Amino acid sequence: MESILTIGLVLLSLGMGGLVAARLRQSVIPAYILVGLLLGPHGLSLVHPSALLDAFATLGLVLLLLFIGLEFSLKQLLGSYKDITSSGTIDLVLNVGAGVLIGYIAGLGLYEVLFIAGIVYISSSGIVAKALVDFRKLANPEAEVILGIMVFEDLVMAVYMALLIALVSKHNGIGGIAIAIVLIMLFLIATALLSRRFSHIVSRAIDIPSEELFLLTVLGTALLFSVLASRFGISEAVGAFLFGLLLSETEHAERVKERLLPIKDVFASIFFFSFGLIIDPRMLIALAPLLALSVAIGLLSKVVGGVVAGHLRGLSGRASLATGMSITPRGEFSLVLSQLAVASGMSYFVASFTAGFVLLTSIMGVMLTRYSDALYASAAKIALRARRAR
């Protein structure tokens, strides 16, 4: 009964927090984290971490990454890989560099710097895509560049996370790390081959008329595939992403999305909530100066990267600025990396830093996306007046 009471309180609170965020036209992700912080042991102390919440959060993480994988198509990626790679590489170099700089300023060790670099680098594809839809910008010329960068980031992060796990795992020797990397690459290659060559077999295997049995089969297979990935040194999250990529090539991709979406929304919200549970507000206050500097660096690196990428793709000044501003929000992947860092024995500094960084960049990023055109117009007017004054 106590568990039912806790879950009921959590879901109701998440619903109310999400409603407030929707009214403010903000992403629900920071709202869910704040609800966890409010109800958790460092807030009202109404909810505490438990095995049940951990299981629900893990399921939410698996479903979240499964859906990200479902959004991609290997055929489309291979068809436009040159444009995606050029834009994505610029974004990668600038923002991983920004993350390393922040880690150096914070005085962190090598492994923590590698986690911070990934946390700062990866944008929230969920927040970015939702903002483009909400503000009716999907038809704009910059939308293709923005989504291409998101695709590149997510694919890079899937490999990056797997390599990080190999580095911080028990395989401390060079030989152990090499073996882990070989296993990771074998699993990735096998998944790609399945997706490209045998998607018709997968389609037939899940061609089940009953919606109930279809749902149970897909969800169960996704969880088992994630566990299988973990046996190869890949996190359950990346395993779910790869399984989503595999399903995206089948004729049932849209059916999977339609049936699993409500379940994903419920459990993904619990994942974000559970992250908020472990955050100590006192740590956020102590980190305020570093967070302010980090957010400034993180926003600037994204905007500059987007502007350069847009310019190289032949976009106008307005569209290039919109590209940079639209990719500034961080979210789900940053939180996943932070969770992996804590699970790998890193200090809770990483979790607290990530919470503050995601909260601030997600809120400010949505605002920058919304007002990018107005900001460009204002900047153009100021530049015009300056030229006339000469």
From TrEMBL:
Pfam families in the cross-refs: Na_H_Exchanger
Protein transport is among the record's keywords: no
Keyword line: Membrane, Transmembrane, Transmembrane helix, Transport
GO biological process: one example: proton transmembrane transport
GO MF annotation list: antiporter activity
PANTHER family linked to this entry: K(+)_H(+) ANTIPORTER SUBUNIT KHTU (PTHR42751:SF4), SODIUM/HYDROGEN EXCHANGER FAMILY/TRKA DOMAIN PROTEIN (PTHR42751)
InterPro entries on file: Cation/H_exchanger_TM, Na+/solute_symporter_sf
Segments passing through the bilayer: 46-68, 89-107, 113-133, 145-168, 174-194, 214-247, 259-278, 290-313, 333-360
Protein's recorded name: Cation:proton antiporter
GO annotations of cellular component type: membrane
UniProt record similarity statement: Belongs to the monovalent cation:proton antiporter 2 (CPA2) transporter (TC 2.A.37) family.
Record's subcellular location: Membrane
Ranges for domain Cation/H+ exchanger transmembrane: 16-369
Membrane topology: Multi-pass membrane protein
Superkingdom classification of source: Archaea
